[in-house]
Structures are given as C-alpha cells and as structure tokens.
Write a structure and sequence with these properties.
mainly beta, 17-stranded antiparallel beta sheet, two-stranded antiparallel ribbon, 1 helix, globular, membrane, plastid
Length: about 350
C-alpha cells in the first residue's frame, strides 16, 4: 500500500511518499528474528519527505524513514546552496536500530545462515559532510560526526554484556561515544570494454574526552571489469584493518551476499582485519537476461583473537572460507532481479534472491 502527495507551501513544493507493506512472508523468517508481536511488527514501511526550498533560499531538507521487520532508520539531511566550485555542505542527523548478526550472530546450518544473538545496536549520530567538487575521475568527501552507540536487547533495554558474559562495548558501560573524522576518496574510469573503480575510506576516532573511543579504521575496495567477447568479467578486492580502541561490533564481518556467498552474514569470520576477493563472469543469454558464474573467498588474516571477547572463536567461525556457484540477472522495470546459487567449503548450498533498484 503506497501513497505519494505533493504539497505546495508558497512557491515551494514538498514531496511526500508513504509506503506501507504487510510482510506476508513473515512466517518464513527465522524465529530468532520474529521477536515482536502484533500486526505492526509484520509491516515494512518507508516515508520520504523532500522540501527543496525550506527557508526561501534553496535550502534542501530530506527526511527518510525506513522500517523493516527487525530494524529501523531515520535520516534527516539539510543542505545549504553553495557554488559548484566550492565544497557542498550537508548537515545530517541519523537514528537507527539494527540487529547485530554479522559479528555476534551464531552460524547455523553448516555456516549457510546466521542466527540472532538477542543484541541490537541503537545508533544516534549527528554531524556535517563536505563533498569536494569532482576533479577529473576523482571525488572525495570529508565528514565529522558525533556518534552514540548503545547495545539493547530484544525488549529494548540497554545491555553491556552478551549471553556469555563478555562485554559488547569498548567503554565497559551500556554505551560508547565517539567523534569520528571520516575521509573517503573515489576513483572511477570506464569505457565500452572495461572499467576501473577504487574506493578508499579512513575513519579516525578523535580523543575529545578520555573515555571516548580513539581508533583508526581503513578500508579499500578495488574493482576491475573487462569485456571478454560477449561476456564480462568483474573482479574486486576488499581489504581493511582497525587499530586502537575497538568494540566487538566494529570488527570486519566476512560472509554473506555482499561478501563470501555460500555463507551466512559474518559466518566466515570477524576480525580486526579482513581480505575478500570476488570474481564473477556474466554471459548474456537473451534480451534482459544474463547468466553468471562466480567465485568468492575471504579471510580474517588471523586477526579474530584481537577482537575483544573473541566472538568468532566462541561461535566456531572458521576464519576463512570460499564459495562458488552460478546465478541469473534479470532486468525489469522494478530493477535488476538477482538470483544466486552458492556452495561453500563445507559443501552446503545456499540460494540468494535480491532486487537492485539502483536507488539509494
């Protein structure tokens, strides 16, 4: 069920979009994720409000609220008009609640799925983004944000330890505070036969107060695509590392649809470092349909025991894994429909289905 409405306020036009959908397939969800009762708990919703001229000087206000079966996210963005030759500023406030599965979740069914552990992360952040004007093939963004992260249980009460009695925060309290300076640079170049993409991120926890987290987190993603006759080969390499203060939920999660297919979310491992490689060969079969074969592999590089509480060891995660399989890509008016059939190193099989609408 959806609704879209335009409201005229003076010369401004406010676009409001509301989408409420009853999740009929909720009965197929794992019991550990269906923890809330009531009709509204089985509804996914999306609310979008856009105001292009808030104070009459072309200031833009975007409000986006998404509710899933087990998570929610509220994002408020305010942008002031600036010359295209100057960095663009965005003031951002965000509040989200998400189940912690990738690091603290438990692998199930031969590592093909991950079950919840009764821990959710409630995150509140506010800050400002500075987007530099694109230069040639490069673009960059710098942001400074204050973050307040508090683990909560399924009933919404703050917690500081998991079921085994290990701390789930770095501070030892029921929450972690940090001021994060993040810099992100992107490079992209493409032609008819190939493309190259590079994304480099570095986050620095600033020592504002003595008990606030001080850390350095680096992540690099390199992707290369090459046309081989009618087929197209895409290979990507992802690596990252964290030094300094660290809470368990900040570890790199390895395994899942966007990591190593054939494994559940985080079922391969979780560590202070990670290295993941993905290769996929796509072959056109007919108009709007492609067949693919893929190979994924990933490792925590032996860094799992450096994560506080060593959750990967307690959950029996192998630390490295490999998955391969085949799939199909169908282009439709809803976006690209993706279906993948993967086999992991334990000879267990997993089927993935997703829709890539291309809209963030």
């Amino acid at each position: 069920m959806g609704a879209q409405k335009s409201i005229h306020a003076g010369k401004a036009r406010i676009d409001v979009n509301v989408d409420l959908t009853h999740k009929l397939c909720a009965a197929l969800m794992p019991p550990s994720l269906l923890r809330r009762s009531g009709l509204f708990s089985e509804v996914i919703a999306r609310l979008c409000i856009k105001h292009p001229n808030l104070f009459g000087r072309r200031e833009k206000l975007d409000v986006m609220w998404n509710k899933g079966l087990c998570d929610s996210n509220l994002l408020i963005t305010f942008r002031r008009p600036r010359s295209l030759s100057l960095s663009q500023q965005s003031f951002i406030v965000e509040h989200s609640i998400t189940p912690e599965i990738g690091v603290l979740g438990v692998p199930l069914e031969g590592f093909t799925h991950s079950g919840g552990c009764g821990i959710n992360l409630r995150r509140f952040s506010m800050g400002v983004d500075f987007s530099e004007p694109p230069s040639s093939h490069w673009s960059s963004t710098t942001s400074v944000k204050l973050e307040h992260i508090s683990p909560i249980n399924d009933e919404g009460r703050p917690i500081d330890r998991d079921l085994d009695g290990f701390l789930v925060t770095c501070s030892g309290n029921s929450h972690d505070n940090m001021v994060v300076l993040k810099q992100e640079a992107q490079y992209a170049v493409a032609d008819e036969r190939s493309f190259t993409r590079l994304n480099f991120q570095i986050e620095q926890g600033l020592p504002v107060l003595s008990k606030w987290l001080i850390f350095n987190r680096v992540k690099l993603v390199i992707s290369k695509g090459v046309k081989l006759g009618p087929a197209f080969l895409v290979t990507s390499l992802t690596g990252g590392s964290v030094v300094g203060d660290m809470a368990p939920y900040q570890a790199f999660s390895i395994g899942g649809l966007n990591s190593v297919r054939g494994y559940g979310e985080g079922a391969v491992g979780s560590g202070r470092s990670c290295l993941v490689m993905n290769s996929e060969l796509a072959v056109p079969l007919m108009q709007g349909l492609e067949g693919t074969i893929f190979l994924d592999c990933g490792t925590d590089m032996g860094s799992a025991h450096y994560v506080p509480g060593n959750p990967a060891l307690r959950q029996g995660k192998p630390g490295s894994g490999i998955g391969c399989g085949y799939g199909f890509r169908i282009n439709s008016r809803f976006g690209q429909l993706q279906a993948d059939y993967a086999i992991n190193a334990f000879n267990r099989k997993t089927f993935y289905f997703s829709i890539n609408s291309g809209v963030s």
